[in-house]
Task: structure prediction
Amino acid sequence: MGKFLQDFKEFAMKGNIIDMAVGVIVGGAFGKIVSSLVNDIIMPLVSLITGGDGYKNLKYVITEARPATADGVAAVEEVAVNYGLFIQNIVDFLIIALSIFVALRVVMKFMKKEKEAEETPAPAEPTKEETLLTEIRDLLRKQSEK
Result:
């Protein structure tokens, strides 16, 4: 049992796992922000433009709701296909996907520039032969100018 706990501790404390956990937490918070953006800003504007109550109330009713009656008939809940909520969730998804795409493009562009900077080798020091040949060339130029 001790080896199992030690292995789990090593696994949980690796940088990638911690980074992933932070990403999940930030992603959850980001999802709430996007949902609020869609529910509280975008969809009211869309319903204003379309002249309706918004997408939340768009549905296809299969069975109407019926209240309970005095003679003992039980109440029946409405059965409906809420395609308005589905449209709203699609808008949520598209905004989140677009945001992640833009963020990843920025990060990848930054990483590409960083990698190119690392791969560009510094100019090599000239060898003794190259230094000697350069000096000879410079001396020959001076002599030809005289």
